Model the fold of this input.
Amino acid sequence: MRTSSPTKFILLALSIVCLFMLNLLLGTVKIPFHAIFRILIGDEQVSEIWRNIILSSRVPQALTATVAGAGLAVSGLQMQTVFRNPLAGPSVLGISNGASLGVAFVVLMSGSLGGVALSRLGYIGDVAISVSAIVGSLAVMGLIMYVSQKVRGNVTLLIIGVMIGYMANAIIGVLKFFSAEEDIKAYVVWGLGSFSRVSGDQMLLFVVLMLCMLPLSMLLVKTMNLLLLGDEYARNLGLNLRRSRLLVILCSGVLVAIVTAYCGPIMFIGLAVPHLCRAVFRSSDHRLLMPGTMMIGASLSLFCNLVARMPGFEGAMPVNSVTALVGAPVIASVLFKRRRE
Done:
């Protein structure tokens, strides 16, 4: 018997709740469930160490994974719709590479020019990395938006975005060559991606920004459905193709910029989740795909974060190692399916 869409949404919501609680429950320090519940309702009689672990580490990490996964998944869906390419992802236009370039300039040049490695500056260094990532990604996004006004074809814009990404990686390679070893290590650690960097006021700002952007992206549902019909049909229905494409790219780019600035470049979630969502809902209607993609992205990020800091590991594995193990088989299955078709 085929499961209805409302039932699927209920199951996805339950999966998010369950995975969120598992992220609070499991870790290198074993904390009973009843103690976690008492901490969440504000009981101060619980062990101070347990309260710090839950409120300062596990809750911010789980919240960050939830909203970051939803944002990356929506961004991937938007890119695949605009370019009508199943292998288009959030980093396809070089926006993630722009964020990486901004961070590379700040991190790799800090030791050479200022004499002090940014990784030693604590909170100030974290803020500088976040700001540089946002500036770098928005600069590339501005360039892409300018180019999109000059070119008509989606394929041309896609190729230009890929070339921008290659140029950014080349500049990063040059900066690494002339940088100190400590600065290179700090940049490599940032590039591995992590949901644990965001805490305190930073976490609150990140969650608020994402909770503002995700509902705004829902306003583009009708536009994205029309874009699926093809350029000529959409134009005949009164859609301004250039403005619509610009709006979708802008929304996707801002989502990627914010997530990359706070969490580093998180791979495969934006690329794989839209395909999982289409397989779950068996539909191309964005009225189902947009909320479904958000929920599956949140669930998958929580699962990857759970695996990355599974009990028994010293510290935590890089999130990108886990997302690649989950996302790569999905992408491979899409390639094989397209080849059979």
